[in-house]
Amino acid sequence: HAELHQKFLNYKISYPLNVVYTMSNSQLTQLSTFDEFRIQILPLLLHLGPYCQDRLVYIKLIRICTTIMKTKYDDLSKLDSSSGDSDELYENLLLIIDELLLPSLSLMDMNGCMAIELWNLLKLFPFDVRYKLYAKWQEDTYKLSIHLVQVKNEVLEKSKAIL
């Protein structure tokens, strides 16, 4: 993760509040590979972390990850640790889920469609990987931000009120 965070720290934004003004259409290019996505977009997404609250970005990101899982990893038994590229891609998918998708779901106003889309992605992983992600989400993720701690406390209070 250190390499991706270092790339983000080196990323310069001239006018952060007026991005349209600083970028012309000639500078914007469409990404065509996951490597381009990993180099250009992933550091920015990781910086957002649990604060990825834009529903459109969230759903598109889930669908991109789902498509990659369905096309590249249709049979996870073929995942070979000797091939560095596909293993790195798999690790990046887990990183996106762990540091962005699950924590962001905790802070969003609940929307059943979001949870179903995320489940459609998570069910493509083996159950042991899913349970590791769930455990990390429950144990460690809520310590990342004061807002996550606040949400967890609100849920506990509402649960106690029901009982």
UniProtKB/TrEMBL annotation:
Q: Name one GO cellular component term.
A: THO complex part of transcription export complex
Q: Which GO terms describe its molecular function?
A: mRNA binding
Which Pfam families does the UniProt record give?
THOC2_N
What are the THO complex subunit 2 N-terminal domain coordinates in residue numbering?
25-162
One GO BP annotation of this record:
mRNA export from nucleus
Enumerate the InterPro entries for this protein: Tho2, THOC2_N
**Leader peptide range in chain numbering:** none
Name the record gives this protein: THO complex subunit 2 N-terminal domain-containing protein
